[in-house]
Amino acid sequence: FGDAGGVAAHVAAPWLLPIALATLVAGTLGVLASRDLGRMLAYFVVASIGTLLAAVGLFNLAGLYAALFYLMHTTLVTAGMFLLADAIRIQRGVLVYQSEGPVSQPLLLGSLFFLGTMALAGMPPLSGFLGKVMILGAAAENPAAAWVWSIVLGSGLLSLIALGRAGSILFWKTAEAPSAKGSLATALPMTALLTSSILLVAAGQPISDFASATAQQLMAAGSYVEGVLGSAYMDAFHSQVRG
Q1: Backbone phi and psi for residue 165, each to the nearest 5 degrees, phi listed first
Q2: Taking a C-beta distance cutoff of 8 angstroms, is the pair 54, 74 a contact?
Q3: Backbone φ and ψ of 174, nearest 5°
Q4: I need a labelling partner for 196 at 20 to 30 A (CA). Which of 15, 92, 118, 203 fits?
Q5: pLDDT tens string for the chain (243 positions)?
Q6: For residues 207 and 189, what is the distance between their CA atoms, to the nearest angstrom?
Q7: Could you give the CA distance from residue 185 to residue 182 in angstroms, rounded to a whole number?
Q8: pTM as predicted
């Protein structure tokens, strides 16, 4: 709640960033502790929420702009990874990190897993890297900048380790056993979602302009309220606040 929030103005400001960083740490620890791909991706959702709230919790225009860009990235890539995990489960039999049958589409699924790993961990030149750079830049002048930088970068490193471990077991540590066949119908949606990480970078300028304009509108909520409720309501509200 911004300056026009009355008694609730900036009520979350002292708490949101610490809670967000704690959420990011908890999600990353869950990723490391997971022993099957589905559970690990669920913890990635928790870590992504922490990253998003950390950007919002900076309470500046650059942080909100970074959060909007990162939101697009994490929504598309995480959805693609869940579809990929289901394809691996169908072809391999299980998602647990143990020796099982090989997947029937190793080149396709392995390439998509590598792409998703790089995107989720925030490695260049994909959209996760660009989003995290925006967040770190927005935190540069914040008193908690050292905490934001260390936790965000540390989470990316640990996530890369966890995903690398998962991929090596799921695709290389296989037993001689038949596997179910993959289909084009399941391959297309996850391919489209995961390759969106590349497209978000390739179309970075228009997407960046859109996120920047949206952030500016969100930071100036009075215009939106006036557009919905009318100027008379805003005049009465400001009179009440001053009174």
Answers
A1: -65, -45
A2: no
A3: -120, 150
A4: 92
A5: 566 666 777 777 889 999 999 999 999 999 999 988 899 999 999 999 999 999 999 988 999 999 999 999 999 999 999 999 998 888 877 666 666 667 778 889 999 999 999 999 999 989 999 999 999 999 999 999 999 999 999 999 999 999 999 888 888 766 666 566 667 778 899 999 999 999 999 987 888 888 888 888 887 776 777 777 776 666 666 666 565
A6: 22
A7: 9
A8: 0.84
